[in-house]
Amino acid sequence: MRSPITPLRDRLRGQAHDQAHGRLRQLLQRPPRGWPSFSSPLRSTAVTARLGRVLGIAFVVCFATGLLSHYQYHPWTWLPIPGAPVWGYRLTQGVHVITGIACIPLILVKLWSVFHQLFQWPPVRGLVHAAERGSVAILVASSVLQLITGLFNVLQFYPWPWDFVKVHYWLSWVIIGSLLLHVAVQLPKIREGLSTPVSRSNPGRQRTVLGTSKPGGLTRRGVLISAAGGVGLVVATTVGQVVPGLSRFALLAPRRPDRAPDEKLPVNKTARSAGVVSPAQSPDYHLTVDGARNFELSLAELEALVTEETTLPIACVEGWSKSAHWRGPRLLSLIERAGGSRASHVTVHSLQKGGYNSSTLTGSQLESALLATHLNGERLSLDHGYPLRLIAADRSGVLQTKWLTRIEVR
Asked: Distance (Å, rounded) from C-alpha 391 to C-alpha 404?
């Protein structure tokens, strides 16, 4: 038998549910007191879309040139790195570093243009919206980390415990994947933004101060022009580390190619920091060649070999590069003496312990390689690889192994 108080209890429950639902709906409709709000008229979909287009192109350029750089260190055996054009790595790595540095002011302006959306209310409107915001968080976090650590790598400053090359490589895939997802999700807004004039919501020549409506301040077009100016200034003060005629303007470049105290060519790693000062100057120094026919050469025998001369650039992963004149015996002549050929895989080893103390050559890079004894008309200095170093075309600087002691022919 139903209790007489049951209808009253059900009615009270229903009223409580309706009140709770109403309060929740009211809370979702209006942000809590003190929630940040932004009213700058400079932010708009048109501005964000234009900034995003330039930043997206820069990211793709960085990604493509970064893959080419990575291939220098991990080439497929069936597709050796070509030896032509000789300036190939110099160009791609220079573009990679300059574009990456230019992305720093670009991403700051882009984040400013969408910063207010971080505080939209309600923060999440459903599972799809939550996934979208999560993908943006991954894209922003990975991009900022990539640009900061990349800049530190250019400065040769490593305050982290992980392997920079591996993290830099795999993070680039995370970024490019997140970017493609972001573009796919935001494509309608991107199209709308790019098709909308920047000043549509600011009719006429009305000007507004950032965050206020006072006259005489910055316009949206002014924001884009300022961003372009900042990026242009960064590029102009770093491009000189690649373009010889602009070296004196490379104020932000970590290495000024026109400022080389030793044989007119900058040095990344000195003989002292590599720990090779004594063995490189030892009177017992000799070069060992391991192949089908092993042999050794003393320093005097090396210097008596027939030499060739060539002009090739040193192009480093930090982005700087400079051409230099080299002289020394052809590597291939020693390979053939050891029973090898142009098709051999050749690994050269350094006196240096640890780090990049060996590198492998195949194909046309092997054919172009010299065992350099002279640089710009002078005997190699210790810091440039005395008594013997490798120099080959279209090759990363860190793979132009210095202080050679052994050659392995397979």
From this structure: 11
d(CA 40, CA 307): 68
Give residue 373's Cα distance to chain centre: 33
pLDDT (mean) for 369-373: 97
Tokens coding 234:
């960064």
pTM listed for this prediction: 0.83
Tens digit of pLDDT for each residue in 26-79?
Answer: 666 778 888 888 878 888 999 999 999 999 999 999 999 999 999 988 888 888
Task: Label residue 205 by pLDDT band (50, 70, 90).
Answer: very low
Residue type, 189: K
Phi-psi region of 347 (alpha: psi -120 to 50; beta: other; left: phi over 0): beta
What tens digit of pLDDT does each residue of 285-308 get? 999 999 999 999 999 999 999 999
* CA–CA gap between residue 268 and residue 253 (Å, rounded): 13
- Looking at residue 211, its pLDDT comes to 42
Q: How far is CA 146 from CA 137, 215, 231, in A?
A: 14, 39, 18
Helix axis angle, 220-236 to 88-114, nearest 10°: 150
CA–CA dist 119, 220 (Å, integer):
21
One-character DSSP codes across 82-146:
P--STTHHHHHHHHHHHHHHHHHHHHHHHHHHHGGGGG-SSS--SHHHHHHHHHHHHHHHHHHHH
In total, the chain counts a number of residues equal to: 410
227 and 109 Cβ atoms separated by less than 8 Å: yes
Q: Residue 318 is encoded by which pair of tokens?
A: 């930090």
